[in-house]
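One example given next:
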Amino acid sequence: MLGCMAMPALSATGHVCVGYLVIKRETLPGLSGLGVLPAEIVSISGCLCDHLPSLTVMEDPDAVSQSFCLPRGVAALVSALVLGSVREGAMAYPPVCRTRPLAERLLAMVSSRCAAELIGFGLQRSDAARYMCWCERRWQQRPSLADLLSERRAFTAGDITLGFEPATVSGTGEVGCSWLCSDAPSQFLDRTGVKPNRWGLISRHSDARRCCDMLDSGEIRGEPGPWFPWLLCRYSRRVGKWDRGRDWRGPKQRRRCQSG
């Protein structure tokens, strides 16, 4: 698991939670070799890290099996859970878990096979309002990410603030490219002296907001914006019905997975 370091306490009244993802930790050898970034990073951008749920898990269970080192039978169960949750409204589309227990259930399915984290993400209220205004100017029918923000849900208890990730919003209103997709961390360090923390994020909102402004203005080179500072929080796994080794599958499902 990722380590914990002292950071400003998260104010539930100051941030809006979009939802939850299970994110596979990844390495960025190109940038980490420069001493700017850590060996492993966690990103809500699909450009860098594999996520659960994801469009891939809905469309191609075999690809999920490869990405998360899962037996094909387990990957099929994960796919079935995601599809069923979308139909029941427990997941948004594009896929984001609306509830923490559902994300914990996904984490229990993959955590013994790969280095994954349960991450909640969202925006400070002022940034959420800015995002909503941007959506209203662009679309008559707002994207699902805006719908999730409009619910104004607070982050749940037991979270560990990892930091803020500057990331774009794509043409469909989803999270797009991260500042980690380019050498923006090095450029920001050169101009401000602010170095990414141990997770490849920015520890303070004011610095992350400044980085986004510099990316939007072109002072720092990066992907086309708009850029927003997304708050990432990590949750420890809770041992329960869906988190006891392989017991979550049941005898019949275990036999099916072993045969897969």
Summary: The two ends are 28 Å apart (CA to CA). The chain has ten helices and ten strands. Residues 1-12, 238-260 have pLDDT under 50 and may be disordered.
